[in-house]
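Allow me, if you will, to draw on your knowledge of protein folds for a short while. I have a record of one protein: its chain in single-letter code and its fold written as C-alpha cells. Kindly check, if you would, that the fold set down in the C-alpha cells agrees with what the sequence suggests. Thank you for your consideration; the sequence and its C-alpha cells are set out here:
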Amino acid sequence: MNQFIYPATLIPDEVDGGFTVIFRDVPEANTQGDTVEECLTEAADCIEEAMAGRIRRGDELPVPSKCKTGEKLVPVPMQTAMKAALYQAMKETGISKSELARKMGTHEKVVRRILDPHHGTKFPTMERTLFVLGKHAELHVT
C-alpha cells in the first residue's frame, strides 16, 4: 500500500439535518457534521485517529478501496500518513524497532517516538527512516 486516501460516504440525516460520515474500509471511523465542508474536516480528523489507533495497537492498516460514485476521498493528514508508511514498511520488512535503531545509529526510544502518531517528528527524520527501510516518500498534489 502506498496511498492513505480513503473513500467516505456522507449520509444525510433526515431528522436532525447534517450528515453522518462513514468509511467502508475503516469501520471504526465515523463522524458527523452540519455541512459537507464540516464533514470533510471532521472526517480527516476521524481517519487520522483511526489510523493512529491501529498503529498503536499493532493492527493492519486497511488498503483503500476505489472511490465509488457519490463518495468523497479523504486523505489521512500528511504527518500521520508518513508515520503509517513507516509502520507499514517495518511490517513488510519484518524489521524490529531495535534493529531499525541500530541501522539508524540511534536509540530504540527515538524510533518509538518516530512511530508514535502523536509525536511531532520532523519530515526529514521520517524520510531518512523510510530510506533506511528501503522506501521513499513522494508527494502528489491533486
